Amino acid sequence: MVQCVSILGSTGSIGRQTLDIIDHLNISIAALTAGTNAERMAQQCRKYRPSLAVMATEDAAKALSAIICDLPTRVCWGEEGLIEAATVPEADCVITAVVGMVGMKPTLAAIRAGKRIGLANKETLVCAGELVMAEAKRYSAQIIPVDSEHSAIFQCLMGCRRKEEIKRIILTCSGGPFFGMDKDQLTKVSKADALRHPNWKMGPKITVDCATLMNKGLEVIEAMRLYDLPLEQVDVLIHRQSIVHSMVEFTDGAVMAQMGSPDMRLPIQLAMTYPQRADCPVDPLDLLTCGSLTFSEPDVDAFPCLALARACAKKGGTACPAMNGANEEAVSMFLGDEIGFYDIYYLVSKAVESVPFIADPTLEQILKADQLAREFVRREMRNK
Ligand code: NDP
Ligand code: MG
């Protein structure tokens, strides 16, 4: 079990649930980071007394400093601050719970400092997964997935010694708030509808990604990178109840599934206790009352983002960071009421085509593809 943790994105949904588990396990905190929510960060600093607190902007850092001027906590801001939080010597584990590409450089820095990574920030693996996994191997840094599906696969693979024994991974997908709707109905959905997820309470970006099924597309790529498997070995099944968190089928036909209550605190805790397990403050799964478990094929016609993500996964290279950057930008516009639900798909698919393709990109080329895709989306939007 880890002893001391830094949390990147401690004020968000995963960040706060991580603090819940930290209270429960009595782990100490080295550093906390947030975007702009200085009030919530101040409360966390008062309770956990980290040596370092980092905000995204200078203004937010000034606001935080003013509230916690009586505490010994040092306050920093920006990318350099995030990297410092990811590498503080006291921490043996970094939970990456920031949303978006902003997590990439700090995650790489934490890996190079040999920290265990509790990885929630899937965008980092989608954009630079090959590079990140290679660095983790080089620096012997453990990456333990926090994403519930990937944690489920991680658990199903405990005890599997040879990758050749895996026939395929089956990622389960709740289907989101718009399950069963056709294209016509989907053109009329609102932001409020998209933010109403049936089974999970999460941050706004991932909630919209769940509604478009882009989240599952990102997770297909995340699984390919984490478990070094080709696209053909990663399938997706709709499972409305979110009780089976994912499955692995082995070459002999055995299928292992990890089940549990839909509560992120279980995978978050495992990322910190692994290889041990500990008592967890999550409601146990009651098989007698959880109802029937159902499985069906995803509707990629109505939800084309999943097919788009699979196409980018197949292409590899800069297609994945271009898709991710365009998606981050388009989702932020959707959340700002600037575009409609289907515009997300149209903008992202056009952006992917517009960014020059590089098959084996360097980190700089990945960052460039991300930037070009974002610029494309903003330009398209202005010319609309
Ligand atoms: P939230 O939006 O709830 O939280 C995001 C965190 O990142 C907040 O602490 C926020 O600070 C901070 N942040 C936002 N923008 C920046 C920035 N530009 N620079 C630095 N920090 C920033 O997101 P979630 O917790 O839902 O998701 C976090 C990650 O975990 C995502 O990658 C998501 O895909 C993944 N994940 C989430 C799950 C969930 O259940 N929520 C499940 C599986 C994966 P502030 O509060 O100040 O805005
Ligand atoms: Mg997930």
Please explain how this structure is put together.
The strands form two sheets. The protein has a seven-stranded parallel sheet with strand order 4-3-2-1-5-6-7, sandwiched between helices. A four-stranded mixed sheet has the order 9-8-10-11, covered by helices on one side. The protein has helices at 13-25, 38-48, 58-67, 78-87, 104-112, 122-138, 148-156, 183-186, 191-194, 204-212, 214-227, 265-273, 304-315, 319-335, 341-354, 363-382; strands at residues 4-8, 28-33, 52-55, 74-77, 93-96, 116-119, 143-145, 166-173, 234-238, 244-250, 255-259. A hairpin with a 4-residue loop joins strand 10 (244-250) and strand 11 (255-259). The chain contains 16 helices and eleven strands. It is an alpha/beta fold and 384 residues long. The protein has three domains: 4-145, Rossmann fold (3-Layer(aba) Sandwich); 162-261 and 283-311, no CATH class; 316-384, RNA polymerase sigma factor, region 2, helix turn helix motif (Rna Polymerase Sigma Factor, Chain: A, Orthogonal Bundle), CATH 1.10.1740. The termini are far apart. 47% of the residues lie in helices and 14% in strands.
Please supply descriptive tags for the structure shown above.
11 strands; 47% helix; binds NADPH dihydro-nicotinamide-adenine-dinucleotide phosphate; four-stranded mixed sheet; 384 residues; 3 domains; binds magnesium ion; single chain; Rossmann fold; Rna Polymerase Sigma Factor, Chain: A; seven-stranded parallel sheet; alpha/beta; 14% strand
